[in-house]
Amino acid sequence: MTLDPTLRLVLFDCDGTLVDSGSVIVSSMQGAFRSEGLPPPPDEEVRAIIGLSLPRAVAVLAARHPEAPVDILVASYKTAYRDQALATTGLEPTFPGTLEALAAISGDSTLLGVVTGKSRRGLDRVLAEHGITDRFAVTVTADDAASKPAPEMVLKALAATGAEARNAVVIGDTVFDIEMARSAGAAAIGVAWGYHPAPDLTSAGAAVIAQSMAELPALVEAVLAGTMT
User: Fold this and answer.
1) 20 catalytic residue (yes or no)
2) One-character DSSP codes across 21-59
3) Which of 4, 15, 143, 173 does the annotation list as catalytic?
4) What CA–CA distances, in Å, run from 77 to 27, 42, 149?
5) CA-based nearest residue to 178, from 166, 156, 196, 193
6) Residue closest to 138 by CA, chosen among 166, 167, 158
7) Phi, psi of 152, deg, nearest 5
8) Catalytic site includes residue 15
9) pTM attached to this predicted model
10) What is the pLDDT of residues 134-165, one digit of tens each?
């Protein structure tokens, strides 16, 4: 696609940024480990790997158990997650103000996208559940690109839309999001309501930390205008 120097691209992480999925991820991961007779990782360790693709996340958590069958743990996690999703409505609620922020940020020259460690099926389900599928011009999942913090998700989103990296910003709650953005040449905004501490996001290269969804429209404008780097 031909590059459009006037186009701006705002890319959101999903888990911990758009939706609060921490509880279901933690319980599913711990259930997967228990099903294989392994001690479940503590809550804080699971939250620390949210944002990575599932195989990489499981491998990190299973590193202290050389005998752990990563592929089986991945399958067990998917089963536990699916069972919860089928049994419970509203399992992954959006954070307060999400819909309003998306509406305020998008525009004729500003496209929205999602770059996420979720699977394609998982992302499509969540976006449809909240009625926001059509808000996003591009979505890149763990099925489409290398795991964060590699830059590939952002690079694929740029290629799909024709936006230039200098006119793109990634909004995310983890160090993985910030490092991915910076590696791709894009700006990054951290959010304070997710799963990694705000100081860590700043250290990783976030231009600014949003304290609420309501702050995001103005912060996006400032970062893309180059007044906050």
Assistant:
1) no
2) -HHHHHHHHHHHHHHTT-PPPPHHHHHHHBTB-HHHHHH
3) 15
4) 9, 15, 22
5) 196
6) 158
7) -60, -40
8) yes
9) 0.94
10) 999 999 999 999 999 999 999 999 999 999 99
